[in-house]
Request: fold
Amino acid sequence: MPGTHEGRIAVVTGAGRGIGQGIARLLAARGARVGVLDVDPALARDTAAAIGAAAIGLACDVADPAAVDAACAAVERAFGTVDILVNNAGVSPKHQGRRADIHEMDPAEWRRVMSVNLDGAFHCVRRLAPGMIAAKRGAIVNQSSVAGKTFYGDYPLTGVHYAASKAGLIGFTKHLAGELGPHGITVNAIAPGRIDTPLMRGVASEINESIRRDTPLGRLGTPEDVARAVCFLTSDDAAFVSGQTIDVAGGWMIT
Ligand SMILES: NC(=O)c1ccc[n+]([C@@H]2O[C@H](COP(=O)([O-])OP(=O)(O)OC[C@H]3O[C@@H](n4cnc5c(N)ncnc54)[C@H](O)[C@@H]3O)[C@@H](O)[C@H]2O)c1
Reply:
């Protein structure tokens, strides 16, 4: 579907690798110009360079409101008013390939997960919503997780900080959809299942293989699977879709 995003200007956070990179690439392939934000400057730069003139790579820790402000200003200078925001940056700390249970969880780790996964979305929306409101147009997608909706049972994948941050993004999405809808802005979330990225490879390969077997569609997801859903939610095809959380999980852990 080339051209569905012609003239659109997007910011994708955590876009230097994994799912975010897939989203940035597909938005650009469909005609958008894209700000590739990542806490790792080299990943941001290399991803933007691979996309070409439609992308600008910027170092940005989404937990830092001043860094968000500077990066968004740079995107606006390069391309103009941003009308698509994908809050994708997220962390899921592991300890020897498994989650920390709550009694062994360091408060600093809890705070960092909240700061990146939840506060980061707040900082980015707060910075970019005024431009969307003035333009009376915008689409925001928040990267939640199936972990924000259900417990993984025997799979030791994610700590309670991660689950709480991803559940928080679902409430954030619903209320923001109500607040920004009157300004012509849609707000939705995606809840990926198991997607094959560097983050997912932080646990033993047998765990991921077991999830693949438990997934009705018989495979793990790819960044492109999630990117296609983001393209739908930010396209005119989804003009009347708002406040929703869509699982992109191959039927795994249907929530
Ligand atoms: N991979 C999965 O199975 C899966 C499942 C559900 C949800 N998710 C969510 O999807 C998103 C992307 O995950 P992924 O698998 O591609 O992860 P990843 O670790 O492969 O990539 C995440 C990217 O975000 C960047 N990043 C980390 N902290 C940042 C910060 N403070 N500011 C800006 N950028 C930062 C990293 O440098 C990296 O490039 C995350 O929000 C994750 O929680 C992933």
